[in-house]
Amino acid sequence: MSIEIRPIKPIRSQLRKFVKYGIDLYDGNPYFVPPLVTDDVNTLSPDKNPAFEFCEAQSFMAYRDGRPVGRITGIINHVVNKRTGTNSLRFGFLDFENDAEVADALFDAVSEWGRSKGMDSIVGPMGFSDMDHEGMLVEGFEEVGTMATIYNYPYYPEHMERMGFEKEADWVEFFVKVPEAVPEKYQRIAEIVQKRNNLKVKKYTSRKKIKEEYGVALFELINEAYDQLYGYSPLSPRQIQYYIDMYLGILNLELVTVVTDADDKIVAIGISIQSFSRALQKCRGRIFPFGWRHLLPVLRGKSDAVDLLLIAVKPEYQNKGVNALLFADLIPYYIKNGFSHAESNPELETNAKVQNQWQYFDTRQHRRRRSYRKPL
């Protein structure tokens, strides 16, 4: 039977089917970590996701014989296109059976939509902004994923190359063993950096207080620190509020470190979160009716791993050892919480400034992911 492509309307019933397909395809896979269905539905909903203020999107599903066999979303980020002087169509939320006809039909549909909007190239997988999942897994298929990253089967990159896509950028990730104590040399560096720059380390026990004092400033710092990174989409005021509300409710504040200057202006932030990977696998991305039973123990601190969600350092303080100050504070809390290892978020392979921070730890680069580009 030929492939039927159906455009998805941005209504919750259709979006839920779209999101659930991306989970059901990996049924039984021990490495895939599903997203929360509600989170992905909200990301794709114009009435929920403030990125739709400057983005357009269209999702498609592929069917054969009435059975879903693939999905894809096309995204046009007008802010990034204006910043970069390009007419790029992003693709994301890509999943499909190992079938060339399915893959071709999905990309034909999304490419036709992009061309109708004046786009001349297609790039991805990427989301609406850098707060969304991005980068196709090309190494590390036998590593358990994280809640912040994409997992895909090994045949995905094979089809990308078959269809003529070429590498645009790579990200690498690291498995970091939590040491028994802060490395002595690392501790000395942290003390020197703190004294030399007159910096202060702040911890919070109140979500309300950190939100009031540094909620907006935190994300403004992220905008400033990440501004020159590949494909970065600056967060708008509405997006900043959206992510403040989303993340501050689930963070263990022991795993959040704020560094300020002598005037209490934020210069660095380190946000880590206990790993939800195993819990999300057990609940299959659903909180109700019983998924909360798997998530609740993690929210209460029961996890053996920690995800390094993000680190942002003000540009003028980068390359001055401020990262050492962040981790010298965080490592004792990792030890206290019983974490055996940490997993870094994707780091651009060219970002030596970030990767140099791992030289003092027992690490291995265990995953690599890629964005691809092709003319339309």
From the N-terminal CA to the C-terminal CA, the straight-line distance is: 27 Å
How would you classify the quaternary structure? single chain
Structural class: alpha+beta
User: Would you list the SSEs in sequence order as H and E?
Assistant: EHHEEHEHEEHEHEHHEEHHEHEEHE
The residue fraction in helices comes out at: 25-40%
Strand content: 25-35%
Shape: globular
Low-confidence stretches: none
Question: What's the topology here?
Answer:
Elements: E1 4-8, H1 12-24, H2 37-43, E2 55-64, E3 67-77, H3 78-84, E4 88-96, H4 100-116, E5 121-124, E6 136-139, H5 155-162, E7 166-177, H6 184-197, E8 200-202, H7 207-226, H8 237-247, E9 256-260, E10 266-274, H9 277-283, H10 292-299, E11 305-313, H11 322-336, E12 341-344, E13 347-348, H12 352-355, E14 363-375
Parallel strand pairs: 4-5, 11-12
Antiparallel strand pairs: 1-2, 2-3, 3-4, 5-14, 6-14, 7-12, 7-13, 7-14, 8-9, 9-10, 10-11
Report on the architecture of this protein.
With 376 residues, this protein is an alpha+beta fold. It contains 12 helices and 14 strands. Strands 1, 2, 3, 4, 5, 6, 7, 8, 9, 10, 11, 12, 13 and 14 form a 14-stranded mixed sheet that branches. The radius of gyration is 21 Å and the shape is globular.
Name some characteristics of this structure:
35% helix; 376 residues; 14 strands; alpha+beta; 12 helices; 14-stranded mixed beta sheet
